[in-house]
Amino acid sequence: MNTFGEYLRLTTFGESHGKGIGGVLDGLPAGLNIDESFIATEMARRQGGRNHYSTQRKEPDKVEILSGVFEGKSTGTPLGFFIHNTSSKSSDYTALKDIFRPGHADFTYFYKYSIRDHRGGGRSSARESSARVAAGAIAKLLLKEFQITLRSGILSIGDVTGEDIDFNFATKSEIYALDKKVEEQQKEAITQARKAHNSIGGVAIVSALNVPIGLGEPLYYKLDSAIGSLMLGLNGVKAVEIGSGVECSKMRGSQHNDAIYKGGFETNHSGGILGGISNGDEILIKIHFKPTPSIFIPQNSLNIAKEECSCIIKGRHDPCIAIRGSVVCESMLALILADMLLLNSASKLENLKKIYAKNS
């Protein structure tokens, strides 16, 4: 399945070492200003090769819009776009043609389809996430019309966890660290993992502000269930927490319930979502990434003939996928909220009457 969303639907295509990665964003309202410079800025945040804390595969990731935009505005028709691959090195994967890399999708893809693109993982590569960031940038342009803003950053690298959450500092940090006090320790943890030809996991936080009350559909397209499903659909994500997350299992109801006053909620253990519907408070999500499976240490594996062998990986890989992954998670949340916002416009008869009254 290569499409997600109910009203605002994104379909992506392409492989890591193919001609490029692309997408079709369908359901976008007509008349939205499509700011291509903003899209380029968002793509640069995800881009590799910026420093030695990320992969050295550096590509311009210029988004070429193919359809759905006229004179700088969306037309209401499917918005197609394409991102050329310009720095693939398929030779790095020749020796792995018949070997399953531990921790990767090689094994499961082969047994599901009886064929796989061994060059960088093909479709299973995180390279595909560039399409999600491009589409997420467009979704952010829509959310901006309603003053909804998104932020993200890195809370933990390995066992080095920050206490303060400063999204402004994260925009200046090379690793998008949220806590200035532990940034150098987190950088050192990444550096040591790289020097050991290894990798390290991390935790990202994504936040959304000014989200109106009412986004989310009962019972089968709840806002929190959509967030959990789509975040877990990203490469390397192994757990998602909303609000107090796993800590709520240690609490009593009197501790976890968010008291309600005229000015709002006293606390935000719910993470801005009640009954699967946004409550107007900040939406706060933690996303846990596993260590990058591509490491430069010999590992035991099997080949397609079911023979035991040694797997030795080459190439250019992120020592910590959580860093660039945080940007992708922010883009995914933008797409989810934009979809829910458009769905919500049809949730009340009075909303529909206003639309038709305007057009009559």
UniProtKB/TrEMBL annotation:
**Is Cell cycle set as a keyword in this record?**
no
Which organism does this record belong to? Helicobacter apodemus
* UniProt GO MF annotations: chorismate synthase activity; FMN binding
> Which metal ions or organic cofactors does this protein require, according to UniProt?
FMNH2
EC annotation from Swiss-Prot or TrEMBL: 4.2.3.5
- GO biological processes: amino acid biosynthetic process; aromatic amino acid family biosynthetic process; chorismate biosynthetic process
The free-text note explaining how the cofactor binds reads: Reduced FMN (FMNH(2)).
Name it. Answer: Chorismate synthase
- Family annotation (PANTHER family): CHORISMATE SYNTHASE
